[in-house]
Amino acid sequence: xxxxxxxxxxxxxxxxxxxxxxxxxxxxxxxxxxxxxxxxxxxxxxxxxxxxxxxxxxxxxxxxxxxxxxxxxxxxxxxxxxxxxxxxxxxxxxxxxxxxxxxxxxxxxxxxxxxxxxxxxxxxxxxxxxxxxxxxxxxxxxxxxxxxxxxxxxxxxxxxxxxxxxxxxxxxxxxxxxxxxxxxxxxxxxxxxxxxxxxxxxxxxxxxxxxxxxxxxxxxxxxxxxxxxxxxxxxxxxxxxxxxxxxxxxxxxxxxxxxxxxxxxxxxxxxxxxxxxxxxxxxxxxxxxxxxxxxxxxxxxxxxxxxxxxxxxxxxxxxxxx
Length: 322
Description:
Structural class: mainly alpha
Number of strands: 2
Largest sheet: 2 strands, parallel
Number of helices: 15
Order of helices and strands: HHEHHHEHHHHHHHHHH
Strand order of the largest sheet: 1-2
Helix content: over 70%
C-alpha cells in the first residue's frame, strides 16, 4: 500500500492536504501550552507572553508546522534519497504528529524541531566545501544550538549531533569543531553578561538549579502497559527500519550512504533527548518525528517485503494512537 502511494504524487498531495487541514484544525481548536514549571527563564517568559496572547500561540504553531514540513521535504529532496519526486516525508511527518496528538500541546520541542531542521539544511550542500563559507555555517550552527538550549535544555544534545556530522564528513575537523563550540559559547557568554548587567544572575541560577530533566525516567512507574508496549515496539521498529534502510542504500552511491548515515546519528541523539527531556511522555516523543518520517519514507522505496512493511507501519501508527 505505502509502496503504491509512494509512486502516486497526486495521491500523496491529496493525503498531504487532508493531513495539513487536520493539523491546522487541531492547532486552532485544541492547542494548549505545556506547564512552565521547571523550564528555563527565557522559556517561561516566552510562554507567559503566549499565554496572554493565544492568537500568537496558534499563529506561531502553524508557521512552525509549515516551515518544518517544507524544510524536512527540502532536506530529503536535496540529498536525493529517492530517484523520483515523492512527498512521503511530509506525509509521514504529519501522520506521526497528528496520530500522536502532538499538536494539542505547544511545548519547547516545537521550537527545538524548527532549529533542528535549520541545522540539517546547513549541511545538505557542498559537503566537501572548505573555507570561510563552511566556517560561517558551522559558527551559525553553534549559535543556533545555543539559542535553542536557552528555550529547551535538551537541545544541548544537538551539539553532539553536529560533532558526529562533522567527524563523519570530510571537514578540517579540529578547526571546525572549535568554531562550533565557540559559536555555542558566545550564546552562553552573552546570557551571563546580560544577566550580570541586569542583575538577574540569581534568577538564571535558580532556573538552572531547578530545571526538569529525565522526567520520563522519574515517572517511569506511571507508564501504562500500553505505553510500555509502544515504547518496546518503537525501539524494535527503529532498529529494524534503520537496518533495512541501510541495506537499501548499500547498493547505492557512496555519497547517498554517507548522507543517510546522518539520519542514524539523528535518531541516536534524539532518543537521548527524549530520555533527558523535562517533558512528560508522550510529549517528548515529538523529538523523534523527523528521523521517523525519514526512515519510513525510505522504507516505502524498498520493493522487498512490501506487505510486511505495510503491516509494520500500520501497527506502528495504531499503537501510537493508543
